[in-house]
Amino acid sequence: MALKVGDKAPDFQLINQDGETVSLSNYKGSNVVVLFFPAANTGVCTKEMCTFRDDLKIFEKLNAQVLGISVDMHYSLKMFQEKNNYNFPLLSDFNRKVINDYDVVLDVFAPGKFDYQKVAKRAAFVVDKDGILKYTEVLSSPGDEPNYEAIKKVLS
Known about the structure:
Blueprint: E1 13-16, E2 21-23, E3 31-36, H1 43-54, H2 56-61, E4 64-70, H3 74-84, E5 90-92, H4 97-101, E6 105-109, E7 116-120, E8 123-127, E9 133-138, H5 148-155
């Protein structure tokens, strides 16, 4: 069932790009922007993560931590982070539990071209200091980008 504003955000424990365990609950007391993206090193995913990298100071002023999540292995996320100088954690949902918990499973990515199966839909969630969802955006097309300004507005 799709998550909606006012729901409690499902907690998770995932491995970051450095192989360290990160939990959503680690950020209790701060706002968190949770970004799901289909695949590291793809065009729109790179553009989206670079936009958040470039605006990170804005999110920090809004007391918000940014977390990127994909089903890529943490080794791939490390290369993606280093290549693009991302200054926020990238988390591996390699076992696809969290994309199911957040109901953001994209059955087929790049159909007819690569047919990657069961990756994350592009989605953005804002979780407040108490773990409650204040913003949800799940995009139907992996080629679309989240509404960056709406995310900032919810945080301000």
